[in-house]
Amino acid sequence: MQVSVFVNKYFLVIMSTISLVAAIGRRGELGKGNQLLWHIPEDMKRFRFLTSGHSVIMGQKTYESIGRALPNRTNIIMTKDASFHAKGCIVMHSLEDVMKFIYENNPETEVFVIGGGMIYTLFLPFAKKLYITLVDAEFDADVFFPEYESMFILSHDEPHSDENFSYRFTEWKRKISDNA
Could you tell me where the beta strands, DSSP code E, fall in the chain? Predict the structure, then answer.
């Protein structure tokens, strides 16, 4: 009950600030064994361009796969582990704490959720925008991005390819209503 009251109180502010950024395979694949499934240099450049100077929200496993705080960003790590600490990061243990932090510290800037799968699922209902790199391949994965196409409208689609993959930089905006 407390979370729903909190969510209602900050919903409009949060809706205007949270974006999810991810690279996914054809079936929504994100990773396997706490590792990315591909290395696409242009996607990494896009990720840095989008997120630099902003807050990023990630789960503990995503942080551990990166191995350090991302430079030029406020790194927020969500974990259930009350004893977890990470140098150069803000560690939080609930959606409510993160939402309150965003409301108090980032009310007019974009905040990026960068993974993993459980964190994407948790924040998807509050996201206004998605930056999705769609990799045109199928992978063996154990973590998947949540279904999003019924809640968002494609607003930008830019095809790319390198020596290994064809992929598209896409942007999705939240539907205003089911009739949108």
Answer: 18-24, 29-32, 35-36, 55-59, 74-78, 89-92, 111-115, 129-135, 143-144, 152-161, 166-174
61, two tokens: 């496993």
Q: What is the pLDDT of residue 108?
A: 72
Which spans in 83-164 are helix H?
Answer: 95-105, 117-123
Q: Name which residue leads in pLDDT, 45 or 12.
A: 45
Separation CA 107–CA 119 (nearest Å):
20
Closest CA to 142 of 23, 63, 33, 37: 33
Q: How far apart are CA 45 and CA 51, in angstroms?
A: 10
Contact 30, 115 (CB under 8 A): yes
Tokens linked to 36: 């990315």
Give whole-number Cα distances, 179 to 6, 151, 152, in Å. Answer: 28, 11, 12
For each of the domains in the chain, give its residue range(s) and CATH number, in order of start. Answer: 2-174 (3.40.430.10)
Q: Which residue from 162, 164, 180 is spatially nearest to 172, judged by alpha carbons?
A: 180
pTM as predicted: 0.89
Which residue type sits at 26?
A: R
